[in-house]
Amino acid sequence: MTDAKSRIEDTVKSSDVVLYMKGTKDMPQCGFSSRVAGVLNYMGVDFADVNVLADEEIRQGIKNYSDWPTIPQLYVKGEFVGGCDIITEMTLSGELDQLFEQNGVTYDKAAAEKIREANA
Predict the structure, then answer these.
(1) Selection from 4, 3, 13 nearest residue 58 by Cα
(2) Which of 4, 9, 42, 101 could share a disulfide with 61, CB 3.0–4.6 Å?
(3) How many whole angstroms separate alpha carbon 64 and alpha carbon 69?
(4) pLDDT at position 120, please?
């Protein structure tokens, strides 16, 4: 599992935003992954996607790495942020905007506002 851990560390440190998900950002293969990728895509966030279905070692390794049992998992600047429910809550509360701003991650603020308006 050390190989998986080092591969995960390399990935989360080499991109500002990384989403470990089932499928890809262009073709998610589960509803929760689709929701988080959809939010990031809609907000225009440049993020790396890692398809855990393509690599069983990474699929289990990411759960061990974060001590979080489910996929998807979002990382910003190497730090674990959360899964689908947490990202949804953060998006609706504006906390995700703040996290991106604090970390210098470019996103479309108007798109974030539209998400909140549509869910008010």
Answers:
(1) 4
(2) 4
(3) 8
(4) 82
Does the model's pTM come out above 0.90?
Answer: yes
Strand duo 73-76 + 79-82: pairing: antiparallel
pLDDT in tens, 20-40: 999 999 999 999 999 999 999
Q: What is the torsional sign of CA 36, 38, 28, 35?
A: positive
DSSP labels, 36-89 = HHHHHHHTT---EEEEGGG-HHHHHHHHHHHT--SS-EEEETTEEEE-HHHHHH
Alpha carbon distance, N-terminus to C-terminus of the chain: 43
Structure tokens, 119:
């869910």
Closest CA relative to residue 39, chosen from 88, 73, 95, 86: 88
For the segment 83-113, what is each residue's pLDDT rounded down to a tens digit?
Answer: 999 999 999 999 999 999 999 999 999 999 9
Contacts of 76 (CB under 8 A, 6+ apart): 16, 17, 99, 100, 103, 105
Structure-block tokens of residue 63 = 């759960």
Distance, CA of 116 to CA of 35 (rounded, Å): 14
